[in-house]
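Entry — protein

Goal — fold tokens:
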Amino acid sequence: MPEGLIIVESPAKARTLKRFLGDRFDVLASMGHVRDLPEKELGVDVEKGFKPHYEVVDDRQKTITELRAAIKKDPGQVILASDPDREGEAIAWHLAEVLHLRSPKRIEFHEITSDAVRRALETPREIDMRLVNAQQARRVVDRLVGFGLSPFLWSKVQKGIGAGRVSSVALRLVVDREEEIRKFVPVESWTIDAELSKEAAAEHFLARLNRAAGAPAAGEDAKLEVRTQAEADELLRKLEGATYKVLGVEKKRRTKSSYLPYITSTMQQDASSRLRFRPRNTMRVAQQLYEGIELGAEGATGLITYMRTDSTRISDEAEGRVKAWIADKHGSKYIGGPRVAKSAPGTQDAHEAVRPTDVNRTPDSIREHLTPEQFKLYDLIWRRFVASRMAPAVYDQTQVEIEGAAYIFRATGSVLAFDGFYAVWPREEENGAQDLPALADGEALDFHGIKPEQHFSQPPPRYSEATLIKELEQRGIGRPSTYAPIVETITKDHGYVEIKERRLHPTEIGEAVNSIMVDRFKVISDDEYTATLEKRLDQVESGHEDWVPVVSGFYGPLQKMLTEAQEAMPADTDEVCPECHEGHLVRKASRFGPFMGCSRYPKCKFRRALTINGETAQPKLLEEPCPVCGRPLQLRTGRYGEFVGCSGYPECKYIKKDASQSAAKPTGQKCPQCGEGELVERTGRYGPFVACSRYPECKYRANVGKDGKAKEGPKLLDEPCPICGKPLVERRGRYGLFKSCSDYPSCPGPKGVKKVEA
């Protein structure tokens, strides 16, 4: 009989543990969280100390039933083995509550190996309510923010959007960077390089103009600044006919130390820049490597340690193994010294760095068992860990000063003398590095030309997902488990930021929301305040603070800001409705954005579109008269985009049907349904689509994908329908391809010839 039941989060983790434990324990998966706050209600009783009301997650009822049946069948010890962090501790607590466990044991391990699991089973503990309360506090605060701000933003900007405590800070960073770029004024500068060589030598090198002769070699005023083309031209005139000779050669040796092993944020950053992985994708693949991969005869094996960490330390055992591997494969001279890292703000240091569980399990040795994504990430983690314990790389650097006319030029070269950690880690290109010939003081050089080049200072780059995570980490905002969800929230969930060429661009609605957050809810969008709250949550975890006062201290200012914002941005206006002249205009919002509507709606359906910032969209008068009343036509913005209508609206409601903004664009293709009309491209409320030019006689339409091409529809066949004579089409149904009439459903089509042979 098994000694008891172990409950983990995922089936993959359950399989890996089962391989270690055999029949000693039953191992089942909870499939993640089993309880949460209700989806459509606040779920927090503010009057009773912010007591949360949890309910079973919709698709977890079956899982709970199975777990209860397993406990009833074998009433032995129940051991909860969820992940070793706040979220994992909360999952364990919710399981204990839902399953009515009297004395459950909690175990944690930071790598899923036989030794780690054995040690965890030897030292079980109680559920740590400090970690649970820290997670509860975060969940309750985020729920209060979401349910407080979202309705306000719905009424002012657009329905269906939302705001979060940490995501608001991330959005502000992206918008602030965009503002910096808009306000940036480029500054002109010039560089002047001389192309030189040893006398009669074929190999050339470049030396850059550095300073005037007699100027100090170092200091703020040493370097000669060339700001304009006129200055550059004047220097070129002075350098005409100049001869060049070596003034001095300085050689020195420098070292470059290896990088520390990965923490969550640096792993996400490197996976983004080197592998083109999005942060959420990186964490998904890392979770797979942590929980276990089937390695043939070896079975399910955890390949890396826990991937949600902010610590770069590693265990003494792992240190000894990696140094032994380095000595065996590369020699003892490649073993590096001890590494000590400076901790970032808010570092908890609860887990080891992200590293392979066994350094001898090289990426190539298990490649056949991994997907391409898994191999790439494991290879990155393995190399980073091994490199972190290797000796520094050594460079021989040469700096040569060269005199030409009354100016000093400088050439720099660098040669790798000892590769050190670069033996396993890809070597970066050295900026400005070049091979220099052996040069001596006073040596004359051959001149091969002068190369002036104009430069303009560049604005700060837009954030990528990786650099945004780095910025959040440096400001102490968020924690390892939240970085990827933060980015996903502002990009995919809310649509406040879009990704173009791997850079983050704020959308119009994102800038509007940020403007409201900064103007009316500055505390929430302030990074220092958010970082302070993160520290208080850490205090709850350490047991130095109770979670209820933390939530209470946040809730009071939030309610005050909401009240002040409502008063400062009232919905009602004093403007009389221009259509019915009885009601007054009220600011409203729909899923298409903000607008002004009549207070007598639905009796009066007047509406005026607003920009996403709440301003009245200004129409543009056109030099074309309205064919109905003679007044000028104007270009206006409505719920479906731009259109041309009469400037006399609402007295004259003429809309130009064939306006270029809504005109149908011919595609040159026959309609596959009727075979008579031509497909034309139109724009509707959900974006572009193609339709038959014979509409409404033929109602064929097909959506247009992101690539601008119509998505596959019925294929027109050169075969008439035996009932109505119109062409047959080939369609795809649940059982494969079949034939039917192009006039379906008006014509039911032929019987007995529907299936198309493959």
Summary: The domain at 4-127 is CATH 3.40.50.140 (Rossmann fold). The chain is about 30% helix and 25% strand. The first strand starts at residue 4 and ends at 8.
